[in-house]
Structures are given as C-alpha cells and as structure tokens.
Here is the input.
Amino acid sequence: MISEINNSGDVSALQTYQIEFGKLVSGSQTQQTMGNYAAAEIVLSNELRGNLVSVEEGLRNIWDGISLLQVADSSLDTISQNLNRMKELVMQAAGGGLSPAQKQMIQDEIDDLALQNIQFGEMTKYNGVRVHKNNQAISITAAGDKVTAIHTKSIEYFTVDINNIEVSISSINMMIDYVTSYRGALGSQMKALEDAAAELSNKAENILESQSRIADTDMASAVSSMVAASILAEAGSIQAHAQVASQIVSNLL
Here is the structure.
C-alpha cells in the first residue's frame, strides 16, 4: 500500500504507478499513456486498423476469384474426360465388324457426351456468375485500386459423325487442344491470384505486428515500471516521515 504523498517526487511516482497499472488492466499502452505521443500512437493504430480491413477485404475477393477458377477447372476436367471418351468411341467404330445397331449406340453415346459438354459450358456458375463465357473479364479487386481480371472462354456445342472417322478424330483432337489451352490459361491466372493472396497475407501479418507493437502493453516492462514506481513512492513516504520525526525530536530538545 502506498502511503500519504508529501512531495512532487512522490506524486510523480504515484502517477507512474497508476499509468503502468492501467496498462496491465487494459492490455493497451495507448489508453493509459499521456500526451501528444500517445495521441500520435492512437492515430497510427487506427490507420493501421483501417489498412488491415482493406487488406482482409482484398483477400476475400482474391479467394472468391480462386474459388471461381477452381470451379471452372473442375468442369473443364470433366469436359476433357468426355472428349477423350468420344475419341475412344470413334476409334472403336473405326475397327470394323460392328452392326448398324452397334454403330448407332456408339453415335448416341458420343452425342450424349457432346450434350453434357455444352451443359457444363452453359450452366457452370459461381455465385450466380456464368463461368464459361467468351471474352468475359471478371474483375477482382485485390486491395485499394489494384484490380485483377479473370478472363474466360466459352464451350461451344461440338459432336462428330462416326461415318467420317478421319475428320472426327481431327476435330476431337482440336477440341482437346482448345480445352487444354484454356485450362492452362486459367491455371496461370490462379497462380497469379495465389501469389497476390500470399502477398496480402504477409502484408496483413506485418500490419498486425505493427499494431501490436503500438497498442499492446509490454507486460514485463509495465510490471517492472510499476514496481519501481511503488518502491520510489514508498521510499519518498518513509523519507518524509523520517524528516517529520527528526523535526519533532529537535523541537523536544
């Protein structure tokens, strides 16, 4: 317990004790520190908090873009599998020895696969946005004024006639190359967004560290200062009492 204060040194020590105690209770050094320095710290802390909100919003937008690209790639993977199956069926039809009914079954399966592909092309969506659309640019706001665009293409209806094997194989190979190239372009865009996300995540960490250094109390330092202030205040009080006792003795003599 701190005794009665009798001089300016004791008052200063008590004020220091109260400030450090307040830091420990609140966990924030900016709430208890006095003067223009603290005001500047609060302004800077608030500015950093605003920057962090912008970065976090940018990260959410980027991950939405990455999710869209993942949905697009998943549908293209299925389309690629369908095209490879179509190629396999054409090669099977070219083998000969098939009845007209068997050839029709092969043609029907090819047509069904072609229909599935166009359905994937037209119906694949993310958050209500059609993914596969020719010359489409979907804007992604990363942070502040930095905008990245996702570019997509369309998947057109495509089928073949097994009665013309050579043309059918050539056409399917062209479509496979188109889808492969498209997937590669989307993959590059996804890599760019992932790099942007990593950059923003690092920026967010740096902001949090800076904000913590400004706003959070250094517990060890606060306890040390509080103990030192308490000792000084007690010492000042003891010294004051000693001076009073000395004066009383002198008066008695």
Observations:
- The CA atoms of residues 130 and 196 lie 24 Å apart.
- The radius of gyration is 37 Å.
- The helical segments are 8-26, 36-94, 100-123, 165-215, 219-252.
- Confidence is low (pLDDT under 50) at residues 1-11, 23-27.
